[in-house]
Specification:
Elements: E1 11-14, E2 16-17, E3 36-37, H1 40-50, E4 59-63, H2 72-85, E5 91-96, H3 98-103, H4 106-114, E6 117-125, H5 129-134, H6 141-153, E7 158-164, H7 172-186, E8 190-195, H8 203-209, H9 218-231, E9 236-239, E10 250-253, H10 257-270
Parallel strand pairs: 1-4, 4-5, 5-6, 6-7, 7-8, 8-9
Antiparallel strand pairs: 2-3, 9-10
Helix pairs in contact: 2-4, 6-7, 7-9, 9-10
């Protein structure tokens, strides 16, 4: 089961299994899962089992890859049920695919917010149009931007992730600059920069084995991160402290931009990077 790092202490409930899109060439998280939506009755059975141990829980995350695909009526019933069962509950969060967001109206999202949907996590990955197509994200840049902006307009906290190194050396700078451009237009509450780690069994891993895709060197990854932060022009909480990253960074933009850029320059100067064997741990 996969969850955002910030949901580490949350109660995780299985609202869906797998990912309704499940075409991304870099992702192996749900390849062996046939997508389905769990009936609310099943979720209620799970709550009955775990409630004695999580009676005072404050956060719940609805797994798997894009629980927002569930019909709004079922999501509303789920939210109302959870807040009724857990009196100290502050927030319910979900992953979303951009396709889910495009299919839901602004009014539906606002209603979900009013019923306690407290954060949406969206994998943007890149703002570079050809790269979105290449990794089979399933949407155009404009559609990705529209989906993300809809969350912001609905006044639901939005946390997005992007993937450093996704375009390889050839697309490194345009990937960074165009991603920063998209994020600047959206203005998400949180931005998390992960670093690409190839997963066996994925299409991208096969491309790598055939010599059709090349990984960035650690120093090249840091340069890409530098271009990204340098080009970002929005107020957001920025994190690049995932286990996959070579250098842990955290700050609030725009005020911490000089500090973050300085930390990257120092890491490049000193070579003080996380060892390859420690990545992902």
């Amino acid at each position: 089961m996969w969850r955002p790092p910030s949901e580490a202490r949350s109660l995780i409930l299985q609202a869906t299994v797998g990912c309704s899109n499940n075409t991304c060439t870099f992702c192996g998280s749900y390849k062996n899962k046939k997508f389905r939506i769990n009936p609310l009755a099943h979720l209620k059975e799970d709550v009955t089992v775990v409630k004695p141990y999580y009676r005072n829980v404050r956060r719940i995350f609805l797994a798997d890859g894009d629980a927002l695909v569930i019909k709004t009526s079922q999501l509303l019933e789920t939210l109302d049920y959870l807040y009724g069962e857990f009196p100290y509950l502050d927030r319910v969060g979900v992953y979303a695919c951009p396709q889910n967001l495009l299919q839901k109206s602004l009014e539906e999202l606002q209603t979900l917010r009013d019923h306690g949907l407290g954060i949406i996590y969206l994998g943007v990955e890149t703002g570079l149009e050809p790269l979105l197509e290449k990794v089979q994200k399933g949407v155009t840049r404009n559609e990705m931007q529209e989906a993300a902006c809809k969350v912001v307009r609905a006044d639901i906290p939005l946390s997005v992730t992007i993937i450093l190194g996704l375009g390889g050396p050839e697309a490194s700078e345009p990937h960074a600059r165009e991603t920063a451009s998209l994020l600047t237009c959206v203005g998400p509450d949180y931005v998390g920069a992960l670093t690409l780690m190839l997963v066996e069994g994925t299409d991208l891993y096969t491309e790598y084995q055939k010599g059709q895709f090349h990984l960035l060197a650690p120093e090249e990854t840091l340069k890409e991160l530098y271009w990204l932060i340098e080009s970002l022009d929005c107020k957001t909480v920025f994190r690049s402290n995932h286990a996959s990253n070579y250098v842990p960074l955290r700050g609030t933009l725009p005020e911490d931009k000089p500090k973050l850029l300085h930390e990257i320059r120092e890491a490049l100067r000193t070579g003080n990077l996380k060892s390859e064997y420690l990545r992902g741990l």
